[in-house]
Structures are given as C-alpha cells and as structure tokens.
Design brief:
Elements (H helix, E strand, L loop, with lengths): L4 E3 L6 E2 L5 E7 L7 E6 L12 E3 L3 E4 L13 E7 L9 E7 L3 E2 L12 E6 L6 E5 L8 E5 L4 E9 L6 H4 L1 E6 L7 E8 L7 E3 L5 E6 L8 E7 L9 E11 L18 E7 L17 E4 L3
Parallel strand pairs: 2-10, 13-20
Antiparallel strand pairs: 1-3, 3-7, 4-6, 4-8, 4-9, 5-7, 8-10, 11-12, 11-14, 13-21, 14-18, 15-17, 15-19, 16-18, 19-20
C-alpha cells in the first residue's frame, strides 16, 4: 500500500439544536515513526471564532503499532459539536482543515490530508416574542413573529381609564434571536384624525425600546391608557405602529432585512365613555387576536 491518510466524510449534518457528527481518520500503511496530524477547526472564516462548531481533539498521533483501522486504537473518530450561538445566521457550510502531517518517517512527513466539510443547521429565528397580560396567571398569551406582517389585536382602552390597563392594554416584547448589534423599536400611537384616543402611560405618543446583544432576550413592558378629548366620537380602533432600526450593516443581520423580520402592528379598541357615554360594551379580552398580511 501507498503511505497516505484516510479521512472519512462527516457522518451527518450538525444541528444547533443538539446534533453532533463524527469523521474517522487513519493511516493506509504502517509508518516507521510517529505521525502527527493537527486539526484546524478555525481555518474557515465562517468558523474563525468557533461560532459554528468545535472538534473533540485538535491533535492526533499515530504510531508504528497503532496506525490502521484494523488496530483497536489505530484509527480516530473525531466528534464535531455545533455551537448554538442564538444568532439567526442561517445554515452554514464550513471546512475543517487537517494540516500537513509531521513525522520522522519521510514517507509520512508533509502529507496533506483532505479537509472535512461540515453543514451546520441553524435553529434560530429572528423576530419578536410578544406576551399579553404578562405575569397574570392563566391570562398570559404569547405570539412569536417573524417574516410575516402581523396585526395583533384584543387590547382595549377607554377614554375615562376605568379599564384595568394591566389586564386590557399591557404587553411585553423581546427579540427571538440575538442581534449582531443594537436594535431599536420605535413605537408610535396612530390617533384617529383629530382625536387622541390612547397614549402610553407616561402621557406620550411615542416610545423607543433598545435591545442590545446582552438584553435582547429580556422582555420590555409596554402599557397604554385611554385619553379623554371631550367629545363623543364613538367606539373605534387605533393603532400602535412599530418601526425597526438595526445599527448593524452586516449582511448576516436579519433585523435590518424585511425579508426575514417584519415589524408587528398593534390594534387597540378605544371605548368612548367620556362626556355622555358609559362603559358599556367596552371590554375586550386583553389577549391576542392576530392577522397576518397586515390585516
């Protein structure tokens, strides 16, 4: 047999959800001296910081007595473990490089083994996790958003603020995956014509929520309240519009690409109970109804 290094293909894809894979390596002919193979897992820029995977060992040594698959300890199985980095960066293919062999045996010194191709399957989805009635036992309701446009309804405020805002017009929001840099959500209350039917609890009509690479999965609370404007315009719906500002310009940043992430929209039912009206037929569930496509 000709002196050489046999390297198998990877046994299967790796998955960030927890699926490892292996490849085997052995010599094709007995060496007369030890043969060392170094595994370079970070050679490929896609895995330069081990953002996709790691290997179980980085140095293999074959000896004149343990060198082939026929020997109990003559072949090595190397495990590739995926890294779940919480970033929606899509499925990635990268190469694990095996460096040239080092040996006092001239037949085995300086051989170039083939690299191992790894396909790592991502398990992260960019988007938002929105919870209505946060912290209220039995009433919490969660919606996960992604690339679909969703209008979320089921909330209510009343002009006289008799409704419990924590039950009827409070929700939390956080990111579903870690961004590459800061992401700001700008919320604005879209009032109906000249009337001002609702506002945030600090009496404003705009609010900004900042999510960083550290607090992206920490829910931030938004509460609305009604606003009396001294007229009977009737019950109606108003909206909280959301815009996304992602500071990263990296092409892997999903939060600045509407093909992957669309901003949600909130529809609030406004009960006209000031002036001559009463709080009749004003209550809503305080839970979600969702409409995709902007509904």
């Amino acid at each position: 047999d000709t002196p050489g290094i046999y390297v198998s293909n990877l046994s299967r894809h790796t998955k960030e959800s927890g699926q490892n894979a292996t490849f085997d390596i052995w010599l094709t002919k007995q060496p007369n001296s030890n043969v060392t193979v170094t595994i370079n897992e970070t050679h490929d820029p896609k895995n330069s910081l081990n953002q996709e995977g790691t290997v179980s060992t980085k140095t293999l040594t074959f000896t004149p007595t343990n060198w082939s698959r026929a020997h109990r300890e003559g072949s090595y199985s190397v495990t590739v473990t995926p890294v779940d980095e919480n970033v929606d960066d899509g499925n990635k293919q990268y190469i694990i490089k095996l460096e040239n062999t080092v040996s006092a045996d001239p037949n085995y010194n300086g051989l170039t083994p083939k690299g191992v191709t790894v396909n790592n399957i991502d398990n992260d989805t960019a988007g938002f996790v929105i919870v209505a009635n946060p912290g209220i036992s039995g009433r919490e309701n969660t919606v996960n958003t992604d690339s679909s446009t969703q209008t979320i309804s089921g909330f209510a405020t009343d002009d006289m603020n008799n409704l419990n805002n924590l039950v009827y017009s409070t929700f939390t929001i956080k990111l579903r995956s870690q961004p590459l840099a800061n992401v700001t959500l700008n919320l604005s209350v879209n009032t109906s014509g000249s009337t001002q039917d609702g506002q945030f609890t600090d009496n404003s009509y705009t609010r900004s929520l900042l999510f960083t690479t550290s607090n992206w999965n920490v829910a931030q609370t938004v509460t609305l309240k009604g606003h009396s404007h001294g007229s009977n315009e009737g019950n109606l719906n108003y909206y909280v519009n959301v815009s996304i500002v992602a500071s990263s310009t990296d092409t892997n940043e999903k939060y600045n690409d509407t093909n992957f992430v669309k901003a949600p929209k909130f529809m609030i039912f406004s009960c006209d109970n000031d002036v001559a009206n009463k709080l009749v037929g004003c209550r809503r569930s305080g839970n979600f109804n969702t409409t995709e496509g902007g509904g």
